[in-house]
Specification:
The protein is of the alpha/beta class. It folds into 2 domains: 3-78; 87-226, 2-Layer Sandwich (Endonuclease, Chain A). Helix content is 50%, strand content 15%. The chain has 9 helices and 7 strands. β2, α6 and β3 form a beta-alpha-beta unit.
């Protein structure tokens, strides 16, 4: 987290005569970004006290102490409400996992980031197309070797104009997760293939817990920067 940005937001809160809705929203967003990480939240609290001490040395006032208490209370309230409100588990064989995936695609508001070993199920591919046609952001990371496998839809997806990156390594890119609207995580053993629906014993977890979503977002961005784009021949 950018220290200068963090300090700027906290100083705005201290300099304001009262915490307006916009200042509260700034603090709330800042605290939620921490994803419930006790270390980061503790750092914000420590910095707030440090700023308060500095202001008290310049000009002691009861308002400064009240502002520290208010910021601390916002941290506690946000932390108490920052954990998961969405927790779903799906199991196969059957179509439970597939329907869970399709339901998430139908309710996308802005973006989908997909990081999966392969995509061969036309029903999922069609859902990907629909997101793209609606003008919503969609990015895909997949394994370079599985693109060549029978039934792979990656070439068709790339032809449609959807950004795809591949690993270009001897090891497999074996992740199976997706992030919807930067806040909902889908992950589990389920491959995005028809065989995974028809016979395999598989599982999927869906959650909006920021403690889980945030590291998966970080892993996606790390791989997106690392891997080259898939080039159509």
């Amino acid at each position: 987290m950018d220290e200068e940005y963090l300090e700027t937001i906290l100083k705005r809160a201290f300099n304001a005569k009262q915490l307006t809705n916009s200042r509260r929203e700034e603090l709330d967003q800042l605290i939620r970004y921490c994803g419930g990480d006790p270390r980061l939240l503790g750092h914000i609290r420590d910095l707030a006290f440090k700023i308060a001490v500095s202001k008290m040395m310049e000009s002691p006032s009861l308002e400064i102490l009240e502002r520290v208490e208010e910021i601390s209370r916002i941290i506690d309230q946000t932390l108490a409400g920052s954990y998961s409100t969405l927790a779903q588990v799906h199991f196969n064989p059957g179509e439970e996992c597939l329907q869970g995936i399709l339901r998430l695609f139908r309710h996308v508001k802005s973006s989908v980031d997909i990081c999966v070993f392969t995509i061969t199920d036309d029903r999922i591919t069609e859902a990907i197309y629909q997101v793209y046609k609606r003008g919503q952001s969609i990015r895909i990371i997949t394994d370079d070797e599985k693109i060549k496998a029978r039934g792979s839809d990656i070439v068709k997806i790339a032809h449609a104009g959807i950004p795809v990156k591949i690993d270009h390594a001897s090891e497999h890119m074996h992740h199976k997760f997706a992030i919807f609207d930067c806040r909902i995580l889908l992950t589990g053993s389920f491959n995005w293939t028809r065989s995974a629906s028809t016979g395999n014993h598989e599982n999927l977890l869906v959650t909006d817990d920021p403690r889980l979503v945030k590291p998966f977002c970080g892993e996606f961005e790390r791989l997106w920067k690392k891997f080259p784009p898939f080039r159509l021949e």
